[in-house]
Amino acid sequence: MTEQSYASARAQTWLLIVATALISAVAFEVLAVTTAMPTISRALDGEQLYAFANGGALVTQLATTALTGAWVDARGPRRPLLTGLLLINTGLLICTAAPSMEVLAFGRIIQGLGGGMCVVPLYVLVGKYVPPEKQSTHFAAFAAAWVLPSLVGPAIAGLLVDHAHWRWVFAIVPILIFGLMPAIFKVLGMMPSLGGTGKIDRIRPLLLPALGAAGCALALYLISGRQAEDFTILTYVGSAAAIVGIGLFIRPLLPAGTLLSARGLPSTITFRMVANTAFIGIDVYLPLLLQRIHGWSPTAAGATLTAGSIAWAAGSALQTRFALPSRRVAVTVTGAVILTAGMILAIPISFPSVPPILLVGAWGLAGFGMGLAYPAVTTHALAISDKTMQGRTSSALQIADTLGGSIGIAVAGILFAVVPGATPASFALTLGILAAVGSLSILAASRIAVGNVTGPK
Hints:
- This protein is mostly helical.
- It has helices at 9-43, 50-75, 78-97, 101-129, 132-144, 147-163, 168-190, 204-224, 233-250, 265-292, 298-301, 303-319, 325-346, 358-383, 390-418, 424-438, 440-445.
């Protein structure tokens, strides 16, 4: 792409502001719902659906993320983005009015359909219309968009749960997105061209893999909702079969060699997948741990999410100082090591004798590692991708995020259910195994360089 194809400096600024604001609204919802979910599951008498209600959105997001990359390449980012925002709002409004945990889980599924259509267009807008030397600033801003929500999201959610009603946690974001719509239309109108290749036929081969992977992930969530006494050998066989099925269906949606962490682009996708599996799987259960084991209120328990998100933003800001491709590789490896250390340090908090305040520091360390690695690996992946395939690369990155998160939450739910009750043993088992998975991110990070794309040192 020639320099003349980039958006004007003014359009790039508007894109940065509006995309960051939109991500902030979505971030608030994620953090607020995670904080409020222990209370919601009790209020709706559905703690067995705790994992499903938390991760159900990721299951459908997985399917639509896989299809949206090809949709954006063929038709441009406008229609997928607007459709996604409509579905997000619809799902959140269903959750707001949900009379039962089952209906709330359904609303989360609709929300996920929209979520899978939103982030890929934003990545493509940056990849196509922002010069490479400025892209790291945009991606760092996207990560930093979690800072304000991380400061106020858990606190607001806790206050709403403690003093108003948990339903407001779902009702706020549709209001915020509606207020952003004029600015979103303005940004889309400022781009040089929003057209695509017109080759919509690329979507058809993706339908079966996308739906199959989502179906297998859904099976994991259904298993995670079983009671401990209902677990049999068939339950474990079914869980293993679902994970294998996910691997088989997901292969056509990702660069060849991703599941083996092949060097280059495949390993950037692998890193995102295993890091998200561990980080999100643990993150979702931390508020439950603090409330059940240490007796913290929803407001106080949200502090762990705040610490992790602020540290994530700090790491993201720091990585912008290492713009050379070769340094991005080193930063990603460093981030993976720090992430793993933070997850390991979180495990002892499962026991009531360990001061729970230590979890804030441990999870801050994990968040800092994620902040270092995520923007760097995103910029690296887009830099080694052909311009005509950036929609597919962006889609693959988001599939890795979504797949990792959905598997992490589902597996955490299954591990948590294996040991009856919300006990120290159940939390320690869950956090320990997920931390072991997260350590694989170090290997993947060490393999993201390929050929001479690392450039000068």
